[in-house]
Amino acid sequence: MATYKGVDVSQHNGNVDTKKLKASGINFVMIRSSYGDIMSYPRQIDKKFERNYANAKAAGLNIGFYHYMYADTVEAAKREATGFVNLIKSKCPFSMPVALDIEEAVQYNMPGLRDDIIKAFISVVEAAGYYCMLYSYEAFLTAKVSAAIRSRYAIWCANITRAPSIAHKMHQHSFTGRVNGVTGSVDLDTAKVNFPSIIKAAGLNGYKKKVTPSESKKDTPKKTVTRYTVKKGDTLSAIAARYKTTVAKIVKDNNIKNANLIYAGQVIKIIK
Questions:
Q1: Residue 48 contacts residue 12 (beta carbons within 8 Å)
Q2: Cβ(156)–Cβ(168) under 8 Å?
Q3: Residue 199 in contact with residue 4, Cβ under 8 Å?
Q4: Using CA atoms, how far apart are residues 55 and 45, in angstroms rounded to an integer?
Q5: What distance in Å separates the CA atoms of residue 21 and residue 189, rounded to the nearest whole number?
Q6: 34 Cβ neighbours under 8 A, 6+ residues apart
Q7: What confidence category does residue 213 fall into, taking pLDDT thresholds of 50, 70 and 90?
Q8: Checking DSSP bridges between strand 154-158 and strand 170-177, what pairing results, if any?
Q9: What is the DSSP string of the chain?
Q10: pTM of the complete model
Q11: DSSP letters of 34-70?
């Protein structure tokens, strides 16, 4: 099974040289865009967000974004999601998922509500047309997030000691990785699926959905053809009214030269 190498970066990584990342074999970069309620506190947009995005795009890396959530109510989660969507929409299209990062201490002890705030955030993001993952460390995901939620959303799981034991599509396997292009430590990730292919085919993250020939044929409504034999006294306008069509369409479909000249016994096709 193919795997894809990536890093996730934020302002804490300083100035990242994305061209060197690409040259070192990195396939994708997950960029922190923001944390908390950025509609009320725009200063919580990551200070390197714009720079990291522009440089990663110029380097030809596959790009995704993640938002660190502070919310402890459903309404707060929706508000954070709305701010996140408004922030990233100008970056479309982009080929990696977006992700909700949930790991705040306040979110650790809220039985029942935790699943609700996850669903609230991701529902807003998905409704806006994005492929959204759920990120946290494995102990949090297994102890505090229901199996129903874990099975509903793609999981980006952090575990730096071993491969996660829960189902996941992306693994953050190091917090202290070293890679050319980043000074000091950087988080390292491995994707288990070809996200760009999935996202582009589904028409998410700003891409137009690819329509296969079979889908195109299936979506084309079938035409019905009725053959009418003209009777004495018939006119095209009366025939058109009877079949709920227009004289112009009948003329075109039957290659009639003179709309005022039809004759008894003539067979006319009514195509709908």
A1: no
A2: yes
A3: no
A4: 17
A5: 13
A6: 44, 45, 46, 49, 67, 68, 83, 84, 87
A7: low
A8: parallel
A9: ---EEEEEE-GGG-S--HHHHHHTT--EEEEEEEES-TTT-GGGB-TTHHHHHHHHHHHT-EEEEEEE----SHHHHHHHHHHHHHHHGGG-S-SS-EEEE---GGGTS-TTHHHHHHHHHHHHHHHTT--EEEEEEHHHHHHHS-HHHHHHSEEEEE-SSS--SS--SEEEEEEEE--TTSSS-EEEEEESS-HHHHHHHHT-TTPPPP--HHHHHHHSPPP-EEEEE--TT--HHHHHHHTT--HHHHHHHHT-S-TT---TT-EEEEE-
A10: 0.78
A11: EES-TTT-GGGB-TTHHHHHHHHHHHT-EEEEEEE--
CA dist., res. 76 & res. 7, Å (int): 29
Mark residue 25 as left, alpha or beta (left: phi above 0; alpha: psi -120 to 50; beta: remaining): left
CA 51 to chain centre: 23
Place of tokens 């199996």: 147
AA letter at 18: T
Inter-axis angle of helices 113-127 and 74-88, nearest 10: 30
**215-265: per-residue pLDDT in tens?**
556 666 778 889 889 888 888 888 998 899 998 899 999 988 888 888 888
Structure tokens that stand for 228 in this block? 């009418």
* Conformational region of residue 138, where left means phi above 0, alpha means psi within -120 to 50, and beta covers everything else: alpha
Residue type, 117: I
Tell me the HSE value of 117 on the side-chain side, using a 13 A CA sphere: 28
What pLDDT sits at residue 196?
98
